[in-house]
From TrEMBL:
The chain holds residues 1 to 304 of 521 of the full protein. Its EC number is 3.6.5.4. Part of the signal recognition particle protein translocation system, which is composed of SRP and FtsY. This is Signal recognition particle protein. The gene is ffh. The keyword RNA-binding applies. Composed of three domains: the N-terminal N domain, which is responsible for interactions with the ribosome, the central G domain, which binds GTP, and the C-terminal M domain, which binds the RNA and the signal sequence of the RNC. It comes from Arthrobacter halodurans.
Length: 304
């Protein structure tokens, strides 16, 4: 991910090396190259436009620095702008003052929600939390089973009632909203301090799916709604993110499949376009392929 963007930016900066002072023409040329590199990496047009304008404005205002040459100063500006579009500071998970903390996952089918649910559960358990996974994806055949397998791997129980399975809060209706509500009640009764609610997605944004997600949100009043997005989906990422933001007003973004070789720029746009921070990254199929997302580290990785 980001390899090509990274190479392009590095090449652009190389041409500034050795310059004692940057002329306006140097800056224009550099900003043009940066703009092209971002567009070729699939960063959304409005994000590129704003990015380029900020870089240009700051580069024109550069004071002669004792410690950094102009090329290094431009790298620093680009680094700052990357951090900014990725959401700025690292955003920690918002934990409820009175447990359980409710975390709802939303996103398209195949985005990586069920996988993320297992990863998040394992990560939280390692920090001493006692999570409960709740299987509300009743749409996709196998989603409940997949969550149960992930729960088993993470050593975390899964609330997944279905006909024939008795539970104190038998929802067993095939109604995901009831399952979500009962899952949270189960967590409260059994003293789990975090509940992770996995929800159904569809292949594309769809009114019924969004209504169901919004209904689940209203029923369980989550502390966090994490929008999981496949970083490989390219320019569609922006429209999808906007639709989910309008539909469920998510609180944070999870970039999944960051281990892939997609250009990655669309993922860069999501935080900037929605104003919601990227909080976690999913980087593979096993439960340990998961990291807290640090905008500054990602920016350094891109500019490495
Ligand atoms: P859901 O429909 O949103 O619940 O998506 P799943 O969690 O079922 O994931 C869809 C597919 O993507 C599965 O085959 C996962 O193994 C795979 N997957 C999920 N996250 C990642 C990731 O970070 N990297 C890679 N390479 N594959 C992933």
């Amino acid at each position: 991910m980001f390899n090509s963007l990274s190479d392009r930016l590095t090449a652009t900066f190389k041409s500034l090396r050795g310059k004692g002072r940057l002329s306006e023409a140097d800056i224009d040329g550099t900003v043009r190259e940066i703009r092209r590199a971002l567009l070729d990496a699939d960063v959304a047009v409005p994000v590129v436009r704003e990015f380029a304008a900020h870089v240009k404005e700051r580069a024109l205002g550069l004071e002669v620095s004792q410690s950094l040459n102009p090329g290094q100063q431009v790298v620093k500006i680009v680094n700052d702008e990357l951090v900014r579009i990725l959401g700025g500071e690292t955003r920690r998970l918002n934990l409820a003052k009175t447990p359980p903390t409710v975390i709802m996952l939303a996103g398209l089918q195949g985005a990586g929600k069920t996988t993320l649910a297992g990863k998040l559960a394992k990560w939280l358990k390692a920090q001493g939390h006692t999570p409960l996974l709740v299987a509300c994806d009743l749409q996709r055949p196998n989603a409940v089973k997949q969550l149960q397998i992930n729960g088993q791997r993470a050593g975390v129980p899964v609330y997944a009632p279905h006909p024939g399975v008795s539970s104190e809060f038998e929802s067993a209706t095939g109604d995901p909203v009831a399952v979500a509500r009962d899952g949270v009640a189960e967590a409260r009764a059994k003293l789990h301090d975090v509940v992770i609610v996995d929800t159904a997605g569809r292949l594309g944004v769809d009114e019924e799916m969004m209504r169901q997600a919004a209904d689940i949100r209203a029923a369980v009043n989550p502390d966090e709604v994490l929008f999981v997005i496949d970083a490989m989906i390219g320019q569609d990422a922006v429209n999808t993110a906007q639709a989910f933001n309008d539909g469920v007003n998510f609180t944070g973004v999870v970039l999944s499949k960051l281990d892939g070789d997609a250009r990655g720029g669309a993922a860069l746009s999501v935080a900037s376009i929605t104003g919601k921070p990227v909080m976690f990254a999913s980087t593979g199929e096993t439960l340990d392929d998961f990291e807290v997302f640090h905008p500054d580290r990602m920016a350094s990785r891109i500019l490495d």
